[in-house]
Design goal:
Blueprint lengths: L1 E3 L39 H35 L16 E3 L1 H24 L2 H31 L8 E8 L6 E9 H20 L2 H18 E3 L2 H21 L2 H8 L5 E5 L2 H4 L6 E5 L1 H20 L5 H24 L6 H19 L2 H6 L5 H17 L1
Parallel strand pairs: 2-5
Antiparallel strand pairs: 1-7, 3-4, 6-7
Helix pairs in contact: 1-5, 1-9, 1-10, 2-6, 2-7, 3-4, 3-5, 4-5, 5-9, 6-9, 6-11, 9-10, 9-11, 10-11
Length: 395
């Protein structure tokens, strides 16, 4: 989370990777403006509105992404490619993060972050951000379209002529034919894609903060929904590693801040602190990096799936971790304004999101059961599906 005295087009927040760009610095109000313009002193009302809105926007993708991850997990276990969240293609199925992936991720993120730092030092910032804008335009349109798909399915009447389409691209012929692209979609998906493209063009041309937030929310929700931790131990490894990563790159070097000043992409949520004074044309933004949403979010989603696996009609661990996230984010804001210094949000979010559920599990005597909970990977789900089909053929 951070504040900057400029528009998103000139002071966007960066991160180490496309969806899990983990952890940005948090600048307190009154720090030096990134574009060297006069400092803007936000009113208490403007500050409260900005940070309250950021907290609310951060909770939306975590809550709804976690709910959709449950349906996503059920689909994965059944080996289905079509369910009520709009999945129709294998590419849209969830990715399972193993303990090995979790251990390597902070290293990969650090290398990516430092690589971006070197790129911005060597090459022109203008050309790099032009390429990034086009890249995230494509990703943003697809992510927003996927996010809107379930909503559109409920909005359109049953009488709506929903035709099915398939985009198939193959290589070779006969028995050696290999599918390169096999994408199934329908008329409702095309409507979602059209609306998302309009938002994408708006962002590409204007870099408006509302368009930025629409893409950012879509990225965050898709990340929470599609990135699955296979167990709680893996979640602790991932969050612990990124805890160290965030603290090191924010407090130990200027790399994170330098990249954050240079990187231009919708990988943060922003809200103007001068909205009350300037309306939609406001330009003094408080910011929250998507990594501070997605990283804790995939752990919170895992705890919801664990709640479901207990079959007790209770969501104790999900709600406790959800409330812990609110507490950790509020503590980040409080410390930032108290010490007037950049703050790595995961410094507060990780202990809260992990600690609260673990304490509750200790009191309920379910700690062992929590750490024994295991989700099958995509490969294992595919093996189960093949085995089921083989059994049907034998019968």
């Amino acid at each position: 989370m951070s504040e900057a005295d400029q528009a998103p087009a000139s002071a966007p927040e960066a991160a180490a990777s496309a969806v899990l760009d983990a952890l940005n610095a948090t600048d307190s109000n009154g720090t030096e403006a990134l574009n060297a313009t006069a400092k803007f002193v936000a009113t208490p009302e403007g500050t409260a509105l900005a940070y309250g809105s950021l907290v609310f926007m951060a909770l939306l993708p975590i809550f709804f992404g976690a709910l959709r991850s449950v349906s996503c997990s059920k689909s994965k276990e059944l080996g289905e490619n079509d369910y009520d969240s709009g999945f129709r293609n294998a590419a849209d199925m969830p990715e399972t993060i193993t303990s090995r992936d979790a251990a390597r991720f902070p290293i990969i993120a650090s290398c990516t972050l430092f690589g971006l730092y070197l790129f911005f030092k060597v090459f022109s910032q203008e050309y790099i951000n032009l390429l990034l804008s086009v890249y995230f335009f494509v990703l943003g349109v697809l992510a927003l379209s996927h996010t809107m798909s379930p909503l559109m399915s409920r909005i359109f009447p049953a009488s709506f002529p929903n035709k099915q389409y398939q985009l198939l691209f193959t290589q070779g012929s006969g028995e050696s034919k290999e599918e390169i692209v096999n994408y199934e979609f329908d008329t409702k998906n095309l409507v979602c894609l059209l609306i998302s493209s309009v938002v994408g063009v708006w962002y590409l041309l204007k870099k408006h903060w509302i368009a930025n937030n629409l893409f950012g929310l879509a990225f965050a929700l898709n990340g929470v929904e599609l990135l699955h931790l296979n167990n709680v131990s893996t979640g602790c490894i991932l969050l612990g590693g990124l805890f160290i990563y965030d603290v090191f790159w924010v407090f130990g070097t200027n790399v994170m801040v330098t990249v954050a000043k240079s990187f231009e992409a919708p990988i943060k949520l922003v809200f103007p602190q001068d909205l009350l004074e300037k309306g939609l044309g406001a330009s003094n933004f408080a910011m929250l990096g998507l990594g501070d949403i997605v990283i804790p979010g995939i752990f919170i989603a895992l705890l919801l799936r664990f709640d479901v696996s207990l079959k007790k009609n209770s969501r104790t661990y999900f709600y406790s971790s959800f409330l812990a996230y609110i507490f950790g984010l509020g503590l980040t804001i409080f410390v930032m304004h108290t010490f007037k210094h950049a703050q790595p949000a995961l410094l507060y979010l990780v202990p809260a999101c992990v600690g609260f559920p673990v304490i509750i599990a200790l009191f309920k005597g379910e700690l062992t059961e929590m750490f024994r909970y295991e989700e099958s990977s995509s490969e294992e789900a595919g093996t189960k599906e093949d085995a089921t089909e083989s059994e049907k053929k034998d019968q």
